[in-house]
Amino acid sequence: MSICANPLFLFLSRSISSPLGSIPLFTTFWFTNTISPANSLPKSPPNWATSSTQKPSIRCSNSSNRPDSQLPSSTESSIKWRPRGRNIKPKITTLQDQGFSPPDIARIISSHPSILGPSLKNQIIPSLSIIKELMGSDDGLVRAVRNCTRVLSANLGKTLVPNLEFLKRNGVSADRIRVVFNGRYGYAFLRRPEVIRESFEKAKEMGLSVSSKTFIYGIVAIAGTTSSGGWEKRLQAFRDVGFTDVDVLTVFGKDPLVFLTSAEKLTRLLIGTGKYDISDIVRSPAAISYSVERRYEVRVRILGVLERKNLIEKWPSLQTLYVSSDAEFCERFVSPYLDHLGDVYSPKMS
């Protein structure tokens, strides 16, 4: 469910748009978000490498963005929120003074309610100051906090600040770090300093130059998988499906963030289709950053039907398969063959 449809988000957005004195901050808010089981993701996705009687569907729109995160596993969730007005009003005022719009504030609070707990003076204001200094402007501050709300509740003095000092001291420019916070990976630098130092050294060992654009993402990828030997396990998962050490280094050099992808997804992509091999992944590693279920499942099944009916001579390249938007894929592989896909295809037009 989109956060904009979240009842708490809608309530907060309307409330914060009103004068602060009229916000009913002393009320207890209950909201229940019900997800229809029919719309929930299955716990065990079907094996799309084999034929299925289930009709696949594809959304023929112009969207080519990477999929949203998965829906909650439970079908219902209830949250009881009992805010204390005297503590919250100053926090909302402070955020507004820093350039956060009412929808921004509503989105931040509804997605990360724990930020209302820390002290305004000792936690939130210093955190805003640190992030603003890093990003260089109010707009940059708002963007960074929207992408990583945890910065308002984390102890930046023990994580982000020493991490930034270490990176700058070792040749990583502030511009590179800002790019990460402009995206959705700023959380990586809220880890313990020893994790960042270790990730920095491993990124160099794997051949990345500190001055390269990908180096900072190498740190993000390694730092995101360091617990319980996670990084070595991730590398081994790639080797287990046939990547050589040279392949691993090549992929890491092109797009380190693909190593945040699960080995299961990679295995299903390679083995499940039987049409793409390791060399295709090495050439286009970003392919495995997309969702198997949302990006590939329907497309692969449709292509399989077209091939069996001799309607296409060969499959598109892996890069074409993942880069094409739903609308582009429909135009090329669905619309011309609707009469042949009727028994296996249910379009969802938007």
Strand order within the widest beta sheet: 1-3
Number of helices: 17
Overall 3D shape: globular
Strand content: under 5%
Q: If you compute it from the alpha carbons, what radius of gyration comes out, rounded to the nearest whole angstrom?
A: 23 Å
What is the string of helix and strand elements? HEEEHHHHHHHHHHHHHHHHE
Distance between the termini: 17 Å
The helical percent reads 40-55%
Specify the oligomeric state. single chain
Structural class: mainly alpha
What does this structure look like?
- This protein is mainly α.
- The protein has a domain at 290-350.
- It is 50% helix and 5% strand.
- It contains 17 helices and 4 strands.
- It has helices at 7-17, 85-97, 102-111, 120-135, 138-147, 160-169, 174-182, 193-205, 215-223, 230-240, 245-254, 263-273, 278-283, 292-308, 318-323, 326-334, 338-341, and strands spanning 29-34, 59-60, 76-81, 348-349.
- The strands form 2 sheets. A two-stranded antiparallel ribbon has the order 1-3. The chain has a two-stranded parallel ribbon with strand order 2-4.
- Helix 1 packs antiparallel against helix 3 (102-111), helix 4 crosses helix 5 (138-147) and helix 6 (160-169) packs parallel to helix 8.
- The longest helix has 17 residues, at 292-308.
- It is globular.
- Residues 19-53 and 61-81 have low confidence and may be disordered.
